[in-house]
Amino acid sequence: MYVSNYTNDIFISYAQVDNEPLTGAENGWVTTLIKTLETQLGQKLGHADAFTLWMDSELRGSSSITSETIKQLNESATIVLILSPAYLASQWCQRELDYFMSLVGENSERVFVVEYNKIEAEQRPYHLSELRGYQLWITDEKSRSHTLAIPKPHPEEREYYQRIDDLTHDLTHKLKELKTKTITPAVAINKSSLQHTVFLAEVTPDLEERRNEVKRYLEQQGVAVLPNKKYSFQAELDHDLEQACLFVQLVSEQADLFNSNQIQYERAKAADLSMLQWHDPDLTPQKMQASPNSTLLQSNSIIATELVEFQEMVWRKLQPQPDKNFPVINDGHLVFVNTAPEDKVLANEIQAILDEAGVGYILPMDIVPTTQPEEIRADLESNLLECDALIVPYYQTPLAKVRQYLMSCRRLQPQRTKPFKVIAVCDKPLPNKSALNMKLPGMQILKCSSLQIETCLPKFMRSLTK
Q: What does the buried/exposed string (b/e) look like for 204-234 if buried means 16 or more CB atoms within 10 Å of the residue's CB?
């Protein structure tokens, strides 16, 4: 055993029909799942016999659970249940669940739900309504659900192994928590640990696997990720937001039936949480504007980049910021960071450094479906006329856009009351990127892989003081 005072670390609850071997499979689906789970748990806990698991293989001839089953439930630290239509139809399974819940309580976080196939929310037992399931099914283009690993797992079924790994990670965490007898509800999270606590917002079904990728990445870095349950009340959401130092959200163009994307965003904003949002870089402006999520998709804090790069940005955001050799200016300068959506990541990094140095900044306005073209032009002209300096990020933005931004600056120069203090292009290297082949009089071209090095943002900011 791993957890003292318990004979079984894990109790497996399942409907027997879900474990009948299918043609082409030596073992039943549940047995195969548990063997994979046991292997991964052994790897995470150090050795194969580090824990004990109980699974009833006897035929169940009645609806009343036996005294042996009750004994095993009494001696189990956690329960893993295989949720399926057969599970819901089994009085035996329901009584196992009810009995275990009566022992540990509904908020113990000791119940782990593996979803064998799709179960609508209204069909889930009330005990499980707030628990996140480990989804071992997918939907096809006709919205039909299909269980993974039937009749047996295939190496290319990446989702199957990743979701079992998620289950293994969470089970390991709970067993270690129980072993040391430090079962701490979210309310007791130590404030000093918040720099490593992230609220990773719920997503629409099309982004569930990408959310899991981000969650796995952060947890591998030792970051605590919330939420760990579904919410029934707004107070629970607000409570978890208070425990986090950063709000992270993935947004797609698909409709969000319960408006949870917007609700989570608004509550995080009300909590004054620092936030990073992401959408697929292949998402076109037309799709964004037509989407029910258009407001989120075009907000200032959303970033269109590869998910791997976004994950690294989240991790960097959590790190203590090193001392920089940037001058602290605080003399009323305003810098216009004229960025295209393609370089929002780089623009946000520039914005953060300007803010730290006490330099005012302005970015282009958010564009929503109701935004008129004349509003966009007026905002651009106002920014170019009123700012003291201009910086144009050039990393993933198409060359034509960057040149257009610079020519707009030149065009409006005669209307300004005083010349720009600095005009700069932050030219971050990228393989096979087109050369700028352009330089306005007095313009700085900051060719640098990092904003911190002497030839990049420090040089630009010192120019503001001249």
A: beebbebbbbbbbbbbeeebbbbbeebbeee
CATH 3.40.50.2300 residue ranges of the chain are: 322-464
Q: What is the pLDDT of residues 391-429, one digit of tens each?
A: 999 988 999 999 999 999 889 989 998 899 999 999 888
| CB-CB contact of 249 with 260 (8 Å) | no
DSSP per-residue codes, 152-167 = S--TT-HHHHHHHHHH
Q: How far is Cα of residue 102 from the mean position of the Cα atoms in its chain?
A: 33
Task: Report how far residue 114's alpha carbon sits from residue 133's, in angstroms, rounded to the nearest whole number.
Answer: 6
Residue with tokens 């960071």: 337
Radius of gyration of the chain (CA): 27
Strand 111-115's sheet: what is its strand order?
Answer: 53-55, 8-13, 76-83, 111-115, 133-135
Pick the CATH number of 1-183 from 3.40.50.10140, 3.40.190.10, 3.10.450.50, 3.40.50.300: 3.40.50.10140
Q: What is the SS3 assignment for 385?
A: helix
User: Residue 84: phi, psi to the nearest 5?
Assistant: -160, 170
pTM of structure: 0.49
Label residue 123 exposed, middle or buried (CB < 10 Å: 0-12, 13-18, 19+): exposed
Contacts of 411 (CB under 8 A, 6+ apart): none
Q: Are strands 197-200 and 224-226 parallel, antiparallel or unpaired?
A: parallel
Q: Are the C-beta atoms of residues 30 and 82 closer than 8 Å to each other?
A: yes
Q: Under CATH, domain 187-320 is a member of which superfamily?
A: Toll/interleukin-1 receptor homology (TIR) domain (3.40.50.10140)
Rounded CA-CA distance 231/235 in Å is 9
Alpha carbons 371 and 220: distance in angstroms, whole number: 41
Question: Contact at 8 Å (CB) between 457 and 350?
Answer: yes
Which amino acid would we find at residue 236? E
Work out the average pLDDT over 128-142.
Answer: 84
Residue keyed to tokens 């996140």: 132
Output the six-digit token pair for 430.
């990228």
Ranges of CATH 3.40.50.10140 domains, the chain: 1-183, 187-320
What is the homologous superfamily of the domain 322-464 according to CATH? Answer: Response regulator (3.40.50.2300)
Write down the pLDDT at residue 66: 75
- Quick one: the chain helix, strand, coil %, rounded to 5? 40, 15, 40
- What pLDDT score was predicted for residue 383? 93
Q: Please identify which residue in the block is written with the tokens 């908020």.
A: 107
Query: Within 10 A of 335 (CB to CB), how many other CB atoms are there?
Result: 24
